[in-house]
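So, who can interpret the following?
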Amino acid sequence: MKESLDQLIDNREDWRTIAFAFYSLVHNDPSDWGKLSDELKNSEIGNICQKYIDTKDAQYLMEAGKMLAGKNWYTALGRAF
């Protein structure tokens, strides 16, 4: 089952897992992304991140970051990890 953003937020463990993998991806380290479960990779955020992986279009990073942590996602996630 595909997890929506609301479901990820409700499940703090899943949110933290995908947020950390996303943050690593932003820093050009896809290793944590590769370790994600298929369920998380196929989530709403996961699909956007996969578009980034496929295209290297930073627009997708911006979109996923805002969905995960708001307008100032880079600062928010940087402080979290």
User: Anything to note?
Assistant: The helical segments are 5-10, 12-26, 31-34, 38-41, 44-55, 58-69, 73-80. The two ends are 28 Å apart (CA to CA). The chain is about 75% helix and 0% strand. The mean pLDDT is 86.
